[in-house]
Design brief:
Layout: H1 8-25, H2 27-34, H3 38-65, H4 70-83, H5 85-99, H6 105-135, H7 141-150, H8 156-182
Helix pairs in contact: 1-2, 1-3, 1-5, 1-6, 3-6, 4-6, 4-8, 5-6, 6-7, 6-8
């Protein structure tokens, strides 16, 4: 849990989008949280997004500096992507419902853009994890390219993160068993 804490803004970014959507349709939240001012919500969202982006940069720098080994980085990537699934589903359902009427089609496009920003944030983490696995010799060049692309594709990013984590874990277990059998 301690390793996930610095990345809480990345994890919560799609949930903040959900919170903004809910507050738009809930008078009580809008009144007491944003003082009935949409621009305060938009400003808070921008600040939250900048903090999340800075956290992505910090993770990438730490990954290049070697503060995380490949299995820790892959585990963090997998956890981030799996925790974000319910928020993506909620945003998708609301966006689809907004497509049903002509008056709310614009909201669907805004939600699509916000979803894209969120996927880019988590995708950057995934790319640096995949790059780290390639540098450690765990993934081949073609696997690195494939998983790097999949980190930015909705739904496939989670599958890719799980596959990379399982591959690292399998190699890690195999290397430990070879080490113990040689003693």
């Amino acid at each position: 849990m301690k390793k996930i804490l610095p990345f809480i803004f990345i994890i919560l970014f799609p949930y903040y989008i959900v919170f903004l959507i809910v507050s738009l349709f809930n008078q009580c939240l809008m009144k007491y949280v944003f003082q009935n001012n949409f621009y305060i919500g938009l400003l808070s969202f921008c600040v939250f997004g900048v903090i999340a982006f800075v956290n992505v940069i910090i993770l990438c720098v730490n990954n290049f500096a070697g503060k995380f080994n490949a299995i820790e980085a892959a585990q963090i990537n997998m956890i981030i992507k799996m925790i974000q699934i319910p928020a993506y589903l909620f945003i998708f359902v609301i966006g689809f419902m907004c497509l049903l009427t002509i008056f709310t089609v614009g909201i669907s496009f805004v939600l699509l853009i916000l979803d894209g920003i969120s996927i880019i944030l988590s995708g950057l983490i995934g790319v640096f994890v995949v790059r780290r696995c390639y540098a450690d010799g765990i993934l081949t060049r073609t696997e690195m390219l494939l998983h790097s692309i999949l980190q930015f594709v909705f739904c496939f990013d989670v599958v890719s993160a799980i596959i990379v984590y399982r591959k690292i874990k399998t190699i890690n277990i195999a290397s430990k068993s070879v080490f113990f059998s040689c003693q």
